[in-house]
Amino acid sequence: MSGKTNATVKEMAGLESGQNRYLGEKLRRSRMSKGWRLRDLAAKAECSESMLSKIEHGHAVPSLKALYRIAEALGLTVGQLFGQPRESNGLVSRNGQRPVVHADPLRNGPGLTMERLTPYHQSDLLQGTIHNVAPGGSGGGLVSHEGEEVAYILEGEVEFIVGDEHFLLKAGDSICYRSEPPHGYRNAGTGHAKLIVVNTPPTF
Question: Could you tell me if 119 and 125 are in contact, meaning their C-beta atoms sit under 8 angstroms apart?
Fold first, then answer.
């Protein structure tokens, strides 16, 4: 395994406690602004009160699929749950300084981390993310939402599922599809995989 890959896996392996606390605080504020108890949000998002409590206290990050359900129940996007205020002149995204989202690292190991290429703002028409996927990692299951997406494979092998079709993509390959059919992906190789995903409208 190369030094570059070792460094990438090491970065993916740990949780950033500050980020988890921010997610928990944003989730708690959003829930309480609606006057909901934990059980109310749990019922709407089809998840357990225990998991929501752990997220709100910064002790857990759910799978990406669960995050989609929680955000949808609150009338938000996943990006709004993680979004930090945008700097007035924030045109450039520096390597190593982008917001990073860890998806379900407690249950699935390093699994998946996502770097935001586009800072969240409610007026944005598209979003871009870099997905770093460890061996055995995935996007957390099939999701469905409005819009369209394009993905470009930077490293490794990735199996995409769009509706009833499966596609094996390698570095240099790309795929473009409507977002309404259930879709998702997984690392289909034995090494690290990296891909860029751009979609519109923003859902993450």
Answer: no
Phi and psi angles of residue 59, each rounded to the nearest 5 degrees, phi first: -100, -5
Number of neighbours of residue 103 by Cβ within 10 angstroms: 23
5 has pLDDT over 70: no
Q: Which domains are delineated in the chain?
A: 11-82 (1.10.260.40), 100-200 (2.60.120.10)
Q: Is the pLDDT of residue 160 over 80?
A: yes
Q: What is the pTM of this model?
A: 0.63
The answer to whether 118 and 128 are in contact (CB under 8 A) is yes
The mean pLDDT of 101-106, rounded to a whole number, is 58
- Residue 62 pairs in a beta bridge with none
Q: What is the CA radius of gyration of the chain?
A: 17
157-to-50, 79, 137, 168 alpha-carbon distances in Å: 35, 26, 12, 7
Structure tokens belonging to residue 126: 């598209």
Q: What is the pLDDT of residue 1?
A: 42
CA distance 101 to 158: 20
**3-class state of residue 49 by DSSP:** helix
Closest CA to 11 of 82, 91, 77, 98: 98
Q: What is the pLDDT of residues 134-155, one digit of tens each?
A: 998 888 788 888 899 999 999 9
The sign of the torsion formed by the CA atoms of 136, 142, 145, 150 equals positive
